[in-house]
Amino acid sequence: QPILEMKKISKAFNGITVLDNVDFSVKKGEVHALMGGNGAGKSTLMKILTGVYTADSGDILIEGKPVNIRNYEEAQQNNISMIFQEFSLIPTLTVAQNIYLTREKKTSIGLLDDQDCEKKTEKLLEELGVDIKPDDIVQNLGVGYWQMTEIAKALSQKAKILIMDEPTSSLTKTETEVLFSFINKLKAKGYSIIYISHRMDEIFEICDRITILRDGRYITTETCSDTDLDKVIQHIVGMEFDQAFE
Ligand code: ADP
Ligand code: MG
Ligand code: MG
Fold first, then answer.
1. How many angstroms is it from 127 CA to the middle of ligand 1?
2. ipTM of the complex, rounded to two decimals
3. Which ranges carry the ABC transporter domain (predicted)?
């Protein structure tokens, strides 16, 4: 059973359909790429999943159970987290403060003191195999580690499904490699990742499956090991690759 199913999702803005009966399903422990040209509907589908928009019709199921996601809090309650492209961290605070302090108010556990935060963070980072320390100041870390701190923060909020939108766009090659080995660890721990990118090389390296949208329609879901670049490009542009250049 998939951890996430989006079924027959439709959405129109001002009478213009941007998603037309789109299906999307993610398994536990997989990295699933969402692909499609500009305007295909990827961001809109993810905004529906995170409660930014409400679908006109269709269902969202988590572990087979229908859920209502009307805002981001409800997405988080359903173990869905967006890893924002613009990092939401406070650079002058430590990793631990970023992961715990800024949110404890909301959860009404009461504020934890720095020591508690650092202990909890140390345990979390150790579990995740992330090579940073709880008292590292975020602005002194490379941008790749900012992202890992973001991911650790999401996981501390019990996220099981992470949405990553162009996660490597501001990373160097080395930082990308570090992120990918981290993603592989997350996979092995059973987390699911929705990976939005235009970088085919990266998708074939890190993703298990690809779902392709075109003009707001679901086209296909392919297993990366059973498909190739040409086929994927054909699905994205919607015609024979050679014809596209005639
Ligand atoms: P992608 O992320 O695949 O590039 P989007 O989901 O951003 O595609 O956009 C799909 C279509 O929906 C585009 O034609 C876009 O202009 C339109 N769209 C997205 N959000 C809105 C909105 N809030 N109001 C009107 N049109 C929108
Ligand atoms: Mg776009
Ligand atoms: Mg987009």
1. 38
2. 0.96
3. 4-240
